[in-house]
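Components:
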Amino acid sequence: MLVSLKNIAQYVSLDGLTAEDIANKLTFAGIEVEEVYPLAQGTNLIIGEIVECVAHPDSDHLHVLKVNLGNKYGVEQIVCGAPNARTGLKVIVAMPGAKLPGGEIKKGVIRGVESNGMCCSLLELGIESKYLTEYQTSGIEELPADAVVGDEDVFGYLGFDDTVLNLNVLANRPDLLSIFNVAKEVAALFSREIKLPKANKYNDFKTNIKVGSETTRCTQFSSREVKNIVTKPSPKWMSSYLMAMGVRSINNIVDIGNYVMLMTGQPLHMYDADKLAKAELIARDDYDGEFVALDEKSYKIIPGDIVITCNKVPMCLGGIMGSLACAVDENTKNIYIESASFDGTSIRHTSNRLGLGSESSSRFVKGTNHFQADFVLDYTTDLLKELCDAKECSDIVTYQSEKKEEKVISSSLDRINGRLGTEFTMDQVKDVLTRVYFDVKVNADNSFTAKVPDHRLDVTCDADLSEEVIRILGFNNVKSILPNLDMQVGALTLEQQRLRNIRYYLLDKGLDECLTYSLVSKKEKDAFNLLNNEEHYVILNPLTDEREVFRTHILHSLLKAASYNIAHQNKDLMLFETSNMNTKSSVSEHLAIVLVGNDYAQGRMSPLLFDFYSMKGLVEGIFQTLGIENSRYKFERAKNNLDKLHPGKSADIIFQNQVIGTFGELHPNKYAEYDLGKTSAVVLEMNLESLLAAKVSVTKMAPFSKFPSVTRDLALVVDKTVEVRDLIKTIKVEGKGIVVDAYVFDVYEGVHIAEGKKSVAISIVYQKSDSTLKDADVNEAENKIKFALNKAYKAEIRM
Amino acid sequence: MANEKITHIVDGALEKINGATTVDELVEIKNTYLGKKSELSSMTSLIGTLPNEEKKAFGAAIHEAKEKITNEVENKLAIFKEKELNEKLQKESIDISLPGRDYHVGSRNPFHVIIDEVTDIFIGMGFEVANGPEVEKDLYNFELLNLPKNHPARDMQDTFYIDENTLLRTHTSPVQARTMEAKKGAPIRIICPGKTYRRDDDDATHSHQFAQVEGLVIDKGINIGHLKATLELFAKKMFGEKREIRLRSSFFPFTEPSVEVDITCANCGGKGCNICKGTGYIEILGAGMVHPNVLKMNGYDPDVYSGFAFGVGIERVAMLRYGIDDVRKFYQNDVRFIHQFSKK
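Structure:
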């Protein structure tokens, strides 16, 4: 909402206040001023008259002008390229030294001819082109004949000696979409008197227009008939003012409509009375059909849209746009003015559906004052009399279905101070509320009632009153005191803490934590989905088809992040992300990991390519971090997703009898898809829900043997398909009571080992809890183990 | 006479030891002077020929001589060994500028740095952390927050819808409503960090996905002073002890009064600079007293309970603190960006 300070000063004295003072005060009172700027910019300007205009000898479009600048400066020669430069024209001249938005004007020589200044267009004075006509932007500004040559107060003459505030009007204060109400607010903030215009009453004749509403979506409809008006351009003050407010001047009637809306916040509509089939304007919402609007386009109206009808034919799309059929034009003589109240929701639906929005519709959507129609119509009529030579003005006819109810709020000083944490006195509170136009009645016990002014649609309860008090008196009156509350353990829940532990474990292991978008395209929704078969949420109103589906897996997004990095020459990646997956049947926390390229755990000089076991180690570490023993989970060769993962180098993670995650080396066919080049990539996706919720027993210290242990190695050759974990399981079973640990330290295939076989070397640690081992004990156990391994796996013992 | 000879032998030995340059020479010297066939050893056999009163002194003199030579040899040997060792160590010297084994820690996206830090600050003040779904019911996202269907303020938050009653949450505030529902009228002190979504085109300052941390305190006698003090503490912890805050009146449908909270600009300390556009302050969050309608709708009697709520934009805080110029950088995951935030 643009506000001209010169305009405000008509209603409240701004003496002694700078634009910054006003902007500051408004901003702290909840009416944020986004910009403060001079309407036009330029120094050293003067009004001149072109007394001679000849063609430049060395140019086909430049003119050499002699411009009379009055007694003080005499006649100066100026070279000018404007096509409309001509003798007798009064123009704005920027003299040498003038500072304009585009730069400083200097004396110069243009193609051999001396030029001592510049004739200006309004564009050059900082007026935006959208407010100017094509004629105005194509040449220099043509001043009216009454302009005084030698007048140096050019902006004063043009009405441009003004500062504009751009207010960010929030949804609770639609009343501020009215200059009168902004002026009231300024007056209240600075405790100054407000003087708003009074309007004359008219009743030259009784109009026979019938107004009414057959829908609850229009609760009020008032009209007046005005006869014998003259359509013509608006006077300079009006067109300049509208320009400053960002509205383009059309003609006096349209301009008055816009002007009144800016002043009062009430959108108006004017009907050409002679174009109506009969004297009737009825609001309805049951029309179904085509409607040709002022913009000469046809719109499809459906039931629910508010239309103003005559003979059941729509003459106006209520609050949005009039019909071409009864539009005011240069031949219009008699008009009906409409000042109505429409339901904002309907207007919003209609304007959104048709893509038709305007200053007028947005005011209805935000909310208008339903009880000021008489004033608005009288004020409009005053202007019609002044600017359109209106002759006869009728009485006002009104349809109104809602009763005006006085809003009175009860509160007390204690409630106000209690909410604010302040120590204001009753006098202060009463003064503030009175300043913002509440009618306050205070009782002996400092309880009080406040009658809400009509324009304040937002005030409904005493919390609102406390806001009025504090926004005017200022938040620096609030004492900062930490609340004195009951003690409470501030902590993460177990699930939150575990999630953090997992993240911090991975960070400690050198992985980088990523953040990718939850919305993906339809094509991507299952692009690297290893786990989740649940149904996706799809966005009804996506912005682009890139962001249309709520993802149910992370891995595709994380692989794309890897891809981005590889493309930017960031090699060797360790990335992870945890994120919440929302499907139609569940909400769950997922973890994804992508390892690409080299693992430098042994230093830059000893790189190892990431492989299946890198990821397996991380998974085991996660379980360990959470205190879940390795007996409670297992890895099984992956059964699904064998088109995405290497079928021989992938595994499912089984916990509580469910596959909670899958990981493995990327399928060779997938590298190109993510532009990963020739390297190694290992990926994981895991649903963390069961882990985060898992029961973990309290740690109890277990005794450990004080007797020495003996470690012996065992090398054996078995079929390649035999899994080492089975060998170790057998060793532990057979050595029960004496074998305390067994671990593989070498696996070898190749020279000296038969095809289809592998050599496995295992260290076995023997120890007794109650006595020192004897050789015989170890030998006995070892033999038993060898026998069992041979029997179960045809293991050939090598040492 | 005999003693003079001993002295002579010792002097000769010491001279040779002193002149020795190798371990082998020393071993030879040792053998020459202390071996079984050495002069001193052969002199030992003379003891028997001496008168009894001289025996003891002569024996002691020989022993002393042997000990002296032994000590000298050992000392000299130790010097040689140390030298030898030093030479060996010298040869073993490595290039200490080569990199260490790679025990580097990973880095968090600054997004996570801020979420973790904000969470920890409020946990320190006794807050609990509440979570809620990102695909949310209209009821929780809007209606229970004093934003009935068709409320014009809904336009402030252009929304992604799944269906008429389901949407992507536009703020973390629905967790307020969910928590009030779960706490059934008991006092509340929570924060809710999480992702949120709005129908905005992505550019340097807008993102269709972003995150907030919501805070909610409900108890008896809560007022704006409590809100101010809590946020002051937060601002100082988050941005530095020198930061001050100020409140400006504003509007949110779910709070009344509503405020915007500004902190003094960390760049200029409040004097005014480019970053704060000359105002000395930077807007960091929105807050207010929980609207009585919100309390009522969610089962709290506004005449008994009051509360405050606030919402902080995570990316905004990170951008301010780290000087990040484009919100899209958070979602690009360029490791050259992420690695800058390895500090814990």
